[in-house]
Amino acid sequence: MSESPAESPAESPAESSAESPADVPEALRFEATELVDIHFEDLDANGVLHNSRYLTLFEHALGAYWYPRGWHHDPKRSDMPDTLQVVRAVAITYHWPVMEVGKVAVRFWLDRMGRTSYTYGFEVRSADGSVLHADGTRTQVNLDPATFAPKPFNERSLAAFSRLVRDA
């Protein structure tokens, strides 16, 4: 855990409503930020956000980002061709506890985009971005729904992901 909650302020969040990379300022192009609610039941007996909830907050942020952009877990309802993606690995580091209900900012991007998998980077910050509570990575693999073998991403999916990919 960090010695102080004072961290460098987060960069301004990218506009979630922007549809094309050309509409997003260059400095914000490769990330997204969603505000996510923390509820009383997310806190442990000490009044601290339970460690398992950080990944749930990240999951909620991903849903808030991708559902309005046409992705749905049900292939019949999804505008995206690749809908079966599973988590292969997760790593998280906790920096400063969340000690109250309210909103946090979950910032995320793609560190790596491969042929059949990708790796998100993410941060959980205070709603104003000034306190880094946790950061981590999550790798997901795209699977063929018939065989459950890794499957290359469709061009449309690659185009949708490209807005979040950071330059190498």
From TrEMBL:
Pfam family, one: 4HBT
Ranges annotated as biased composition (Low complexity): 1-22
Domain Thioesterase, residue spans: 46-131
Sequence intervals crossing the membrane: none
Source organism superkingdom: Bacteria
Signal peptide: none
Stretches for region Disordered: 1-23
Protein name stated in the entry: Thioesterase
Protein source organism: Streptomyces carminius
Lineage: Bacteria, Bacillati, Actinomycetota, Actinomycetes, Kitasatosporales
